[in-house]
Design a protein that fits this description.
The chain has an 8-stranded parallel β-sheet. Helix content is 33%, strand content 18%. The longest helix is centred in the last third of the chain and has 15 residues, at 209-223. It has 8 helices and 8 strands; from the N terminus they run E-H-E-H-E-H-E-H-E-H-E-H-E-H-E-H. The protein starts with a strand and ends with a helix. By secondary structure, it is α/β, with parallel strands linked by helices. Helix 7 packs across helix 8 (209-223). Helix 7 (184-190) links the parallel strand 7 and strand 8 (194-197). The chain has helices spanning 18-27, 50-59, 74-77, 98-108, 122-125, 155-167, 184-190, 209-223, and strands spanning 5-8, 33-38, 64-69, 87-90, 111-116, 134-138, 172-176, 194-197.
Amino acid sequence: MRKVFISPSMMCANFLDLKTDLDVLAGSGVELLHIDIMDGHYVPNFTLGPDYCRALALDGRIPLDIHLMVENVDLFIERFAGFGGGYLSFHPETQYHPQRTLQLIAQSGMHPGIGIAPFHTIEQAKPLLPFVKLACIMTVNPGYAGQKLIPGTMEKISELRDWRKKMGLDFIIEVDGNVSWENIPRMVEAGADALVAGTSSLFKKDEPLGGNIARMRELIARHA
């Protein structure tokens, strides 16, 4: 069976009882913690910051998967570079020289990644793919949890998988956006290696986090 990582969206966690959520996630063997960083410019929202990342990194049980939805990315790298072993991704359309930004991330000790927004194509991302360890396909517009999947974005998963194989590259294909019980099977079958799970699955209101992780593992196992 192909390994598929679960990367819980930590903007959806219970901030008033974060330790309990972390204990459940770590005890269930979750592979990554997805942390959305927003600046109010690239997306019209503000979420988490370096202190939140630092607290999760100090817990130390699960590597961080930091997703920068910001402009002027190079100014943010140093603030988020101290969490070695994890991933640091950004949206290349925000940078004049995105390949140089990937180099800066790699030099910081983090694994470099890119986000591919719904209306940016795999073709546009191809020149950067040899330099990444993770490519995150967004199936909703960046900025908010709880959105519906945008038609046509699912096909990009298999397109990226096929291109990766053709070029002999080695990076994680992550999917972020409406990773719901209904969509998980299609995402996994299309080639997703990591799923960013939020309010439409893992952190669904009034449902137990541990039970939802187990349900997600079962879905993945049936379709990987």
